[in-house]
Amino acid sequence: MWKWEISQTGVDELKKIDRSFQKQIIKKLNYFVNSQKPLNFAKRMISWEIGQYRFRVGDYRIIFDVVNNKTVRVLSVGHRREICK
Known about the structure:
With 85 residues, this protein is an alpha+beta fold. It has helices spanning 8-15, 19-34; strands at 3-6, 43-44, 53-57, 60-67, 71-79.
């Protein structure tokens, strides 16, 4: 069973996003993780400096690493224009 956790940086960034988008991001993150194959929805990052993978949720991106082969550790959340800068 996959699960997800979020870093303090991710929490701080998520709090800056509009409440309706926060709910949408969390709902989609739960959907990805509960699918049993969340990496099917992810794209591998070219540079692993900020994370290994990313999920796309509308105009927002969730940057994450996989820990212990069953945990998605969210490192960063933000708008697509700002997330990789």
